[in-house]
Amino acid sequence: MISFVSIDLEKILNSILEWISTSGVRLVIGLVGLFVLFKIINAIAKRIKRRLEKKNADKTISVVSYHIIRKGLKIVVFVLFLGFIGIDTAAIGSVIGAAGIAIGLAIQGSLSNLAGGIVIILMRPFRIGDYIIAQGVEGTVEDIRIFHTILVTVDKKVIYLPNGALANDKIVNTSQKDIRRVDNLFRISYQSDMKKAQEILLKLADEQGLVLKDPKATVEVSYAQTGLELSFRTYVKTENYWTVYNYFNKAVKDAFDSQNIAFSYNTLSVNLENEEK
Fold first, then answer.
1. Where in the chain is the domain with CATH 3.30.70.100?
2. What's the rounded Cα separation, in Å, for the pair 101 and 93?
């Protein structure tokens, strides 16, 4: 019995030594090569990204190209690694293909997001750094990935929008043009001097250095139930939109108060009647 066990252990030891001397060596060489090639791929992808940025290429294209090159080449190298260590890659490809069909049926939404991501990358309705309004939310585009787009809101919340729905819905890109119109709405009482209010607004626009001279600032008047509505419209460079919008909200209040121009507000009248019995 002892002799039988010793023979089995000897066979096992010989098998291990044989595997180490053949397949084991290939595995070690393959892992080292895989590690080195992954490092080279990362370096190549970073260099391509830097060159695109130096040539002032679109930031979206440079970032997306970086991800595709880095991940795509790594997948190719990993498949070659499997073949090098003796794994039948053809069989693996068949299994992956069959599994892909089953998975594809189960994740149709993800495939829709993949298609949407390709459409967004090719058509470029927005780019990284643009401020967009879509899917009921708005924010600055921080990154565009294959399956989703990342937005950062003004209050620094991160929103992940699925590309499938995003590519097939309305997108408002407020950053695509260099110039943007600022709309401030002010409502004054009917007793206030309308012409003076218009003059004040146009003077403030002329004094505000960020407001463009062409197109000119305008003030349109309309009548509301509670007072006169003054639609104050100015034009600025896109990056100055919020600065100018917030500036006028404060400056107009101060200017109107100094000239005794009253803002209108909703009032509620209550009539009490006494009935004598």
1. 179-258
2. 12
